[in-house]
Amino acid sequence: MNAIEQILRRYDKPLFILLFIFCLLPFVSPAVALFVGLAFALLVGQPFPAFSKKTSKYLLQFSVVGLGFGMNLHESLRAGKEGMLFTILSVVAVLLLGMYLGKRLLMDRKTAYLISAGTAICGGSAIAAVAPVVKADDSEMSMSLGTIFILNAIALFIFPPIGHWLGLTQEQFGMWAAIAIHDTSSVVGAGAAYGERALEVATMVKLTRALWIIPVTIATMFIFKQKGAKVSIPWFIFFFILAMVANTFLAIPEAVSGSLVWLAKKGLTVTLFLIGAGLSRKVIKQVGVRPMVQGVLLWIFIGLASLWAVMAM
């Protein structure tokens, strides 16, 4: 450990708080916040792991609900409907391919299934919902979440430039990001980086996709022969829909709705900082080669398949 790292580790807590406040500034984008969090975690570690994990979870949910106050229900439902058929096909295809790859790579069955579910639906949220059903232990959870988080962080940086290079429209990019990027946080972050319409489409399609947590969790009970397991329902999605309904049919002053959307975007920025700060060296070491190979192959499959689908529409 060099002198700089020693100094950083010595003052890790006040530095973390300063960076947290920095991410609240108007000019800090979600991608910058994620990068700052990643750099901090790799150099210093995570001084507040429990706080970051819990706060990022609920802050993301509040932020998504806040974004609903800036969206029109009719336009959003149209976007969600357009991506519905491909969502169904891709969820089933990724789960089946993921289990096949896991078997060929001689991976633990539970880890392979968790990574597959995370890639197919909505990253860490899907893994957290399915893990109790398959009775995954801490090691299997760490490897699965680590794989998804690493690829999730990469996606936020590379997807917007690829979208511009390919000349994707706002709608095309939003749908592609929603299907091909794992976690809701990075989907919304990538959509916001690409444009307002891309953000709306990406958020709606991703949350529609996230509802697949429920049928997949139920199916998992039969696959792993677990009776009486608890099904985790992402209730915040319904509050997001209520926010869209209110914004569409109620005469909410633009100053109010605009402020709520701005706060939601700032909340998302801080969320990505916290998520990035959780991706420490320890997490990366826990992943292992085989889970990462499976995760990358699944990501390439869903990325290319969804790109072909949105460009063909």
The largest β sheet comes out as: none
Please state the overall shape, judged from the principal axes of the Cα atoms.
globular
Taken as a percent bin, the fraction of beta residues is under 5%
Unreliable stretches covering 5 or more consecutive residues: none
The averaged pLDDT comes out at 82
Tally of helical segments: 17
Please count the beta strands (DSSP E, at least 2 residues each): 0
**What's the order of the H and E elements?**
HHHHHHHHHHHHHHHHH
By secondary-structure content and strand pairing, the structural class works out as mainly alpha
Termini Cα gap: 53 Å
Overall radius of gyration: 19 Å
Helix content: over 70%
Give structural notes.
The protein is mostly helical. 81% of the residues lie in helices and 0% in strands. α10 runs antiparallel to α17. The protein is globular, with a radius of gyration of 19 Å. It starts with a helix and ends with a helix.
Write a brief caption for the model:
The protein has about 325 residues and is mostly helical.
Give the tags.
313 residues; mainly alpha; 17 helices; Sulfate exporter family transporter; cell membrane; transmembrane helix; membrane
